Amino acid sequence: MHRRYTVAIIPRRVPESDAAGTANGIVPGMDDKAILLKYLRARRGELLGKLDGLDEYDVRRPMTATGTNLLGLVKHVASVELGYFGEVFGRPSGRDLPWFADDAEADADLWVPSEESREEIIELHHFSAEHSDATIESLHLDAPGKVPWWAEERRHVTLHQILVHMCVETAQHLGHADILRELIDGSAGKGPGDPNLSQRSTEEWGDHRARIEAAARQAAR
Fold first, then answer.
1. Which residues, 6 or more positions from 136, have their beta carbon under 8 angstroms from its beta carbon?
2. CA–CA separation, 92 vs 177, rounded Å?
3. With contact defined as beta carbons under 8 Å apart, do 107 and 55 qualify?
4. DSSP assignment of 15-28, as one string?
5. What is the 3-state secondary structure (H, E, C) of 48-61?
6. What's the predicted TM-score (pTM) here?
7. Rounded to whole angstroms, what are the CA distances from 93 to 4, 78, 82, 89, 182?
8. 142-200 confidence digits (pLDDT tens)
């Protein structure tokens, strides 16, 4: 089965509220599984939110030389999550994902042809989240699983490992989506008032960018 999985994470500055846990609904006394699930749900919601307010062209259009696009990121994350919390733990969803078929073209899970609707991809995202949450809530963190598309020596995993893996996977692609959305319409972070972003006017951001550009040019001399 052709799949594309990545595990790096894009660093983000964390506000004090998030460091204390309150930004993701974390409260004292929560167990490790509940905490990880809260973070996964938060990142899922933020990724899906990157589509809000954009037309069909903007959610689909490639913004990098390798074709990275917003709706494709949602499609990819929803699809791989179904595999990790489905097949890996003997709980297949029964959902047919033709872009993962043996004869599918490379990277078919990372973009959306015109005949696939935006609504279908969003529904897949919700379906994937519900199926994954059912697996997570039903098993303990030490529950064993097997990732058949990983190398033999690292296929045997636990729910804990896969929860961390999907938190990282989703956060990585949310980082991609952050940049794409800013390039499309200037919207950054979680929107106005995001504590992760300095509060500047459009003119102030222009000045800030110009200072960085000048510093880069000076360093390159």
1. 33, 37, 85, 159, 163
2. 28
3. no
4. PHHHHTTGGGT--T
5. HHCCCCCCHHHHHC
6. 0.86
7. 19, 12, 7, 11, 34
8. 999 999 999 999 999 999 999 999 999 999 999 999 999 999 999 998 877 788 889 89
